[in-house]
Amino acid sequence: MTSYRITLLPGDGIGPEITAVARQLLEAVAGRHGFSLVFDEQPIGGAALDATGEPLPASTLEACLGSDAVLLAAIGSPRFDRLPREQRPESGLLALRSGLGLFANLRPVKIIPALIDASSLRPEVISGVDLLVVRELIGGVYFGLPKGRVEAEGRVRAFNTMAYFDDEIDRIARVAFALAAQRHGRVCSVDKANVLDVSQLWRDRVEAIHGEYPNVDLSHMYVDNAAMQLVREPRQFDVILTSNLFGDILSDEAAMLTGSIGMLPSASLGSEGPGLFEPVHGSAPDIAGQDRANPMAMVLSAAMMLRLGLHQGAAADDLEAAVDRVLAAGWRTGDLASNPATALGCRAMGDRLLESLAANET
Question: Which of 50, 166, 224, 286 does the annotation list as catalytic?
Answer without folding.
Answer: 224
